Amino acid sequence: MPDRQKPGRWITHPADRVNATRALVAPFLLFAPFAVNWFSGYEIIYAIVTFVAIGETNYLLHLHIHRPFSRNPALNILFDLSMGAVTGMTASNWRIQHVYGHHRGFDRPYRGERSAYLQNYSAMRAVTYSAISLFETIYAPIVESFNKGILDKIKTPISYRWAFFEQMLLLGFVAILIVFSPQGERHADKTYGGNPRYQQPRQFRNRFADQDGHTHLRHKRGRHTDHDGRGAITRCQHAGRVEQFVADNFCEKDCPKGGEENYQQFSGSASRGILRCHS
Questions:
Q1: DSSP-derived 3-state class of residue 219
Q2: Is 217 exposed, middle or buried (0-12, 13-18, 19+ CB in 10 A)?
Q3: Which of 250, 242, 233, 237 is nearest to 267 (CA)?
Q4: Beta bridge pairs of residue 220
């Protein structure tokens, strides 16, 4: 009988080296388009390559929570965070509701009493059961980790305090991704030809112009709201704002041919709220 292989220094079992590498690379592949635009024009190809490379990340996370990839606690936390950010399912959630819940016969706190859906199995019943129990699968481990980790300070079989903070980190990370929209920035750079004169801050662009450089205002009982609907302004106030915006950013010395005529025509009828300073 062959001897068991000696555990590695960083990765416990040699068979997990490839899985560990994929786990660490996954967030870089998934979130790279948020930071760089190297893949512009090849989005479909990049999506296919990324899916092939990291599409099994949740499966890898499942393997990792049963048998950690490393004997180094810090490296295991890095694996937890890396795969959790990609899958949206933290390692702590897996450990609470799967390892110490499902594998010990305690599914109800994380699934609810829905035994009727498990009778007379069908694909539709299985999908329905998974969909309606998803919310409990997410929030029940958060509540449990808060009660055991923050209130009762329980540290076994896992650190429930860390479990709570890890799940909060994921929610915060998702909130950042919702707010951060680099695609809009790159679109604006492309729209205005890379000319820094036309690359206005995002808040300024959102308030006064849409993606095609047109400014719109809404009419309601003789008053207007800005592009985001933030508060009413009078027609005179709006006309003054837009006229200054055009003069400062579109129709000075580098205004396109015909732009001066368009600007003069617009400035005389700014209350209509449509700006087209293009030839």
A1: strand
A2: buried
A3: 242
A4: 223
Q: Is the dihedral of CA 13, 17, 21, 26 positive or negative?
A: negative
Q: For residue range 137-161, what is the model confidence (pLDDT) as tens digits? A: 999 999 999 999 999 999 999 999 9
The model's pLDDT over 40-90, given as tens digits with 9 standing for 90+, comes to: 888 899 999 999 999 999 999 999 999 999 999 999 999 999 999 999 999
Strand order in the sheet with 223-225: 218-220, 223-225, 232-234
Task: Show the 3-state SS of 225-258.
Answer: ECCCCCCEEEHHHHHHHHHHHHHHHCCCCCCCCC
Return the structure tokens found at 160. 């429930």
Helix (H) or strand (E) holding 220: strand 218-220
For residue 71, give both structure tokens: 């004997």
How far from 176 is each of 89, 170, 180, 205, CA to CA, in Å? 17, 10, 6, 20
- Residue 140 has a pLDDT of 95
Which phi and psi (to 5°) does residue 234 adopt?
-75, 160
Peptide bond into 256 cis (omega under 30): no
Eight-state DSSP code of residue 276: -
Tokens of 245: 């915006």
Rounded Cα distance between 136 and 118, Å, is: 17
The answer to whether the CB of 166 falls within 8 A of the CB of 91 is yes
* Residue ranges in the chain whose pLDDT is less than 50: 1, 184, 192-194, 196-224, 226-227, 252-253, 270-279
* Residue 55 amino acid letter: G
Residue 217 is encoded by which pair of tokens?
Answer: 């205002």
- DSSP letter at 8? P
Partnered with residue 232 across adjacent β-strands are 225
- In contact, 221 and 235? CB cutoff 8 Å: no
